[in-house]
């Protein structure tokens, strides 16, 4: 994908075996043409400029300009998917926690209702018990 790299001055290609440099004004020079720039002044745009050798050791923020944009897009997509996946996991965890709490609440409410019923039953039994006792006492007195 870097078959477009050429010296912006003499139009030589990197396969000529020369070193190529990138200027901070955004121009690419072969080593021959770069050496002809007088007093660090770019022959193309006339700006005073610095240059760095095109190599794999270049700063990633500069290397980026020489990479296939489609591969860059794929990488961005992978980063996006990875982060989305992580976010989904965290969201699922919290959703599960909320469900657990609400099911615990349901369970607690059921137990509370059963306890109330039990209290009612207990009161009824006490009453019946008292009536029966009274009847027994009355029978004994006769
Ligand atoms: Zn050149
Ligand atoms: Zn320039």
Automatic annotation (TrEMBL):
The UniProt record lists the keyword rRNA-binding: no
Regions crossing the membrane: none
GO molecular function terms noted in the UniProt entry: ligase activity
Database matches in InterPro entries: Zip3/RNF212-like, Znf_RING, Znf_RING/FYVE/PHD, Znf_RING_CS
Keywords carried by this UniProt record: Coiled coil, Ligase, Meiosis, Metal-binding, Zinc, Zinc-finger
Record-annotated RING-type domain positions: 7-45
Keyword Hydrolase: no
Coiled-coil residues: 108-135
Protein name, UniProt field: Probable E3 SUMO-protein ligase RNF212 isoform X1
Organism this protein belongs to: Limulus polyphemus (Atlantic horseshoe crab)
Gene designation per UniProt: LOC106470819
């Amino acid at each position: 994908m870097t078959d477009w790299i050429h010296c912006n001055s003499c139009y030589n290609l990197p396969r000529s075996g020369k070193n190529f440099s990138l200027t901070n004004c955004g121009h690419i020079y072969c080593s021959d043409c770069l050496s002809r720039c007088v007093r660090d002044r770019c022959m193309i745009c006339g700006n005073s400029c610095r240059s760095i050798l095109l190599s794999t050791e270049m700063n990633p923020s500069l290397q980026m300009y020489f990479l296939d944009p489609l591969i860059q897009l794929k990488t961005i997509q992978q980063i996006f998917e990875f982060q989305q996946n992580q976010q989904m996991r965290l969201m699922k965890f919290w959703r599960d926690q909320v469900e657990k709490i609400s099911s615990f609440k349901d369970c607690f409410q059921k137990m509370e209702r059963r306890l109330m019923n039990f209290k009612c039953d207990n009161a009824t039994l006490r009453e019946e018990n008292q009536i029966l006792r009274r009847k027994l006492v009355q029978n004994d007195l006769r």
